[in-house]
Amino acid sequence: MRRYAKALATTVLAVSLTGPALAQETIKLGALATLEGAFTVLGEDSMRGVRLALEEFNHTAGGKKIELVTGSSDASPDSAVRATRKLVEQDGVQVLIGPLSGSEGLAVKDYAKTQPNVTFLNGSSAAQDTTLREPAENFFRFSTDGAQWMAGLGEYVYNEKGYRKLAVLAEDYSFPYTQVFGFLEPFCRLGGQAPADARFWVPIGNKDYSSVIAALPDDVDAIYVALGGADAVNFLTQYEQAGGDLPLIGGSITVDQTVLGSKGKTRDFVVGTPSAGPISDTWDDQRWNAFVEAYKKQFPDAFPSPSLFAHAYYINTKAALLALDKVNGDLSDGGKSFRDALTNLEFETPTGMVKLDARRNAVADMFLTEVIEGPQGNLVNKTIKVIPQVDQTLGVSYANFLKYGAVSRENPKCE
Question: What is the reported pTM?
Answer without folding.
Answer: 0.92
